[in-house]
Design brief:
Elements: H1 2-18, H2 33-36, H3 54-90, H4 95-125
Length: about 130
């Protein structure tokens, strides 16, 4: 009895993992509007909980797209300002401090690369 329950549980667990991961080609629901809709990104915070109509959502997506170019320009401008600021700050450092700063940056880059490699390896192992 216990063995049968364990086998049944294992089968249910296996199905719970496999079924949600079926691609639309494997799923019987290939022609529905849900599976063929293009994902347009998230709505602004809390807007998804308002019960908005598809028309309202499309207008929100359109507005988001219309502002994206301006926002991207501002992001680039902020990046340039931050680089200029950091360069000016570095002029205040002694040669020894500049050398130590370079070492710290190299260590941080190495750690980031190792973390990225580990997360990539673990992601590959999941599939």
């Amino acid at each position: 009895m216990r063995r049968t329950l364990l086998i049944g549980f294992a089968v249910m667990l296996g199905l719970a993992v496999v079924l949600p991961n079926l691609s639309p080609a494997q799923n019987d629901d290939t022609g529905s509007a849900e599976t063929t809709k293009e994902y347009r990104g998230p709505l602004p915070a809390h807007f998804g909980k308002l019960g908005m109509s598809d028309t309202q959502k499309e207008k929100v997506y359109s507005l988001q797209e219309s502002y994206e170019e301006q926002l991207e320009k501002l992001r680039k401008q902020i990046e340039q300002i931050e680089q200029k600021r950091d360069a000016e700050i570095e002029t205040l450092l002694t040669p020894g401090q500049k050398l130590r700063l370079q070492e710290l940056r190299e260590e941080a880059a190495k750690e980031a690369a190792e973390t990225q490699a580990k997360s990539s390896a673990s992601a590959e192992g999941k599939f």
